[in-house]
Structure formats: structure tokens, C-alpha cells
């Protein structure tokens, strides 16, 4: 196989993987209205609050990748994640507001032991990525985002195990599926 054929094959693989990530993450689908089922428990609220907490750092990282990533596949992935998470945030915020719940999770570390703790605010990661040399940026970005998406999966797993609201549990399952697909794709890009 010559370099041109290999390049085309890798390009098709990257396109297919991006399409899979977009499909699994629900990118482009209109957000549904808040659940008609208004019963909820602390696990439902915690999951939604954690989604808010994870969104801000991810938003900062993906915005930086849009500017600095050298590979088009990394830029496409960052854009897809940004759109998907913005749609998810609309749903999350609507539920929390409907239930008159705070959008920020409690800071007591004991409350977050089952799902890996609270995420940072993203400032340290953004500072690190801003200083990263161009030839190392993509790999550092992917490594950081893999860790962050793993944290989201842990929060979603806690929701599916302990939540009672069927719509929120369904969101948690979609989040789990999409983030796992994203992580698998990012692992291939990071090699």
C-alpha cells in the first residue's frame, strides 16, 4: 500500500469514526423538552449538576482545540463535542430549573466519592494547553479530554444505578454511550 492509498484509508476511517461519534452523541438532534415525569431524587439532581460542572471545562478545552489543533480530525471531534454538550446543557438546565434545584453541585467531597469527585474549572488544563508546543498540542488535548469524559461516564453510571427519573436516566445512558465512543476514538487519535 503506497502513502497516498494509506492516507486516503486513514482519512475515510477518521470520517467514519467522526460520524459514529456524532451519531452516538446525538449531535444535531433538537433537545427534547424537560421530562413530563417530575419525580426525581438526589441522584438525578447530582447527575444533572455534575453535567453542568463538567460542561464548563470541556467547553474551554474544545474552544482551544478549535484554534490550536493541527489535525482536522481533532478539530472536527472538538466541534462535535462542543455542539453535543451545548444541546445536553439545555436539557440539563431546564430540568434543574423546573425542579427548583441549584445548578452547581455541593462541594462536599464525600458526596462525590462514588463518581470520581468534582471536576476542576478547566483553568489549569487551558493554561497547560496554551503553553503546549504545536507538535504536542493534539495529544495533550486528547489526553485531557479522555480523562474528563471518563469522569462524565462515572457520573452517568451513578445516575443509572440510583436515579429515579426515567428521562434523566435515559440521558445518562446516552451520555455513557456517546462518551465511551468518544474516548475510544480519541485513543486511536492519540496514538
UniProtKB/TrEMBL annotation:
Residues 1-35 form the signal peptide. PROSITE patterns: PROKAR_LIPOPROTEIN. The keyword S-adenosyl-L-methionine does not apply. Residues 44-188 form the DUF305 domain. InterPro entries: DUF305_CopM-like, Ferritin-like. Keywords: Signal. This is DUF305 domain-containing protein. It comes from Hamadaea flava.
